[in-house]
Amino acid sequence: MKRGSAMRVSDNSGGVRRAGACAVAVVAATLAGCSADTIVGKATATADSFAPSADNRDPSLQIRGVVVTEIAPGQPHVLPTQRVAYPSIPPVGGPHDAQWAACTGVVYPKALRTENAVHSMEHGAVWIAYDPAKVSAQDQATLRAKVTDRQYTLMSPIPDMDHPIMVQSWGHQLALDTASDERIDQFVVALRENPYTTPEVGATCSSPLFDRTDPPPYDPTPPGPDAVPMSGTR
Questions:
Q1: Is the full-model pTM beyond 0.85?
Q2: What is the pLDDT of residues 32-47, one digit of tens each?
Q3: Cα angle 197-104-167, degrees, rounded to a multiple of 5
């Protein structure tokens, strides 16, 4: 079955408009209630105000810089030997491996296969990726503190990213320069296990058979012509 995706971007009034399926856009929403007091490893009082509710199902639309891509739920699984032609690295959704990467607050020491991490996001996880050449040891420690032992989160390096830090959940992404940026906590509070944006609400992040120290490796080469397209069908 063919699956489509489209970008939607919040406007300054908090409304939502649609853009083309493969468009790249940056949210221009005005961020209210900002605070400079970021507590490493914990959501700040400001971040707590980004918790989803029936009246505000996607608070991430209030976060400056968040890009939202509409991706249909029920994406197909691919084999461990297959790759998906994701339009961005890190990806934010689409076809994925049948095995999800453990996302029980796991900090991976190596870059892991994107197809496994995408499945984790389908379960409601927030994935923090960083470029080890662009992020200092201190900032890496700050990021680890936000993830370690925190359910429905995972963290891994990805070399040669366009930005030092990329935070993503299903259909959502935020590019950052520093780990002290308060928008990281806001993003996690808004989207981790968000019942309105998670395709498989209640699915576990535990994955006992997934290797946490030597995960399936990330492939930096461009996907070949045999890669599974985002539509899930050839």
A1: no
A2: 333 333 333 444 456 8
A3: 50
How many Cβ atoms sit within 10 Å of the Cβ of residue 134? 15
DSSP the chain: ----EEEEEE-TTS-EEE--TT------PPP-S--S-PPTTS--HHHHTT---SS-S-GGGGSTT-EEEEE-SSPPEE-TT--B--SSSS--SSSEESSPPP-EEEE-SS-B-HHHHHHHHHTT-EEEEE-TTTS-HHHHHHHHHHHTT-TTEEEEE-TT-SSSEEEEETTEEEEES-TT-THHHHHHHHHTT-TTT-TTTT-----TTS-SSSPSBP--SPP-TTSBPTTS--
| CA dist., res. 57 & res. 60, Å (int) | 9
